[in-house]
Amino acid sequence: MSKLMKFHQNHAQIYVPDDMPLPAALSRVTHLGIGAHADDLEFMALHGIAECYQRTEHWFGGITCTDGAGCSRSGAFENITDVEMVEIRAHEQNAAAQLGAYGVMVQLAYPSHAIRKSDENSLQQDLLQLLNATTPEVVYTHNPADRHATHISVMRSAIQVIREIPSEQRPRKVIGCEVWRDLDWLPDDLKVVMDVSGHDQLAGALNAVFKSQIAGGKRYDLAIAGRRSAHATFCDAHTSDSATQLIFGMDLTPVVTGNSMDLADYVEEVLDKFRQEVMCQLNI
Predict the structure, then answer these.
(1) What share of the chain is helix, strand, coil (3-state, %, to 5)?
(2) Could you give the CA distance from residue 114 to residue 111 in angstroms, rounded to a whole number?
(3) Is 110 exposed, middle or buried (0-12, 13-18, 19+ CB in 10 A)?
(4) Please, how many CA atoms are within 13 Å of residue 244, restricted to the half-sphere of its CB?
(5) What SS3 state is found at 130?
(6) I need a surface site. Which of 73, 238, 241, 242 has the fewest CB within 10 A?
(7) What pLDDT digit, counting tens, does each position of 221-278 carry?
(8) What's the rounded Cα separation, in Å, for the pair 81 and 70?
């Protein structure tokens, strides 16, 4: 870990693929992904990765919050210990950062159970330190309707920290992204549509890095590509496909623009609008 950054977990690490000095590597980040697990960024924040890929004016930064010890495993990884898996997944995440030409990759190495503790604020302190150092234009994190409890905890921490930043320094866009629940149900006017068509090769290469998951029994590579293809076709019922790969997001910017809107209240409004849309179609 760099002496310029002090995190709460002893095994936290920072990787800069092009060896840029850390302060410059952090300050150049324009698109920041905050994910729970190794591979979440590549699955949910491909839009940001692709926007920055091989460009000098935009840089993607990644933050992975957990150590990955509790992931499912089978096949060649069936007998891998938690300690070994932590090392494997950290290596895979850094390899993806190298492949995707990220500006910086931070792994905070929290056990999942520590992140899910409602009275634990160490993660928020680490994230605040990083957000102050990066001041990104766009932040990608998990969406509030995700089924995974650790994803929700990371998202809530990210939102809380962004709201602590002075308003003029906050990201202009915060997007809640799909992993353990897609967002095709969102009303169209509330849906962030991210076109990642033409980046199939990059996406496939990034997904393939995570062999501990794919060979370990979870075909995320096929599932994620299939979801994006399905979105491209089912996005609009009345026109021919204009994209081949789409990712949907929930716009969380209204929650961080001011400090008056509660996250739960905002999500309730989104759900109410979805309910009204469905019931209106049924003429009830």
Answers:
(1) 45, 15, 40
(2) 5
(3) buried
(4) 5
(5) helix
(6) 238
(7) 999 999 999 999 998 888 888 899 999 999 999 999 977 789 999 999 999 999 999 9
(8) 10
Using DSSP, state whether 228 is helix, strand or coil: helix
Beta strand extents in the chain (DSSP E only): 13-15, 31-35, 60-66, 104-110, 138-142, 173-177, 191-195, 246-251
Return the structure tokens found at 255.
């929650």
pTM (two decimals) = 0.94
Instruction: Identify the band that residue 73 occupies on the pLDDT scale cut at 50, 70 and 90.
Output: low
Phi-psi domain of 283 (left: phi exceeds 0; alpha: psi -120 through 50; beta: other): left
If we measure between CA atoms, which residue out of 67, 85, 89, 165 comes closest to residue 124?
A: 165
Least trusted range by pLDDT, from 55-64, 124-133, 254-263: 254-263
Q: What is the pLDDT of residues 99-108, one digit of tens each?
A: 999 999 999 9
Q: Which residue has the tokens 């000098």?
A: 56
Q: Give the span between the Cα atoms of 187 and 278, in whole angstroms.
A: 10
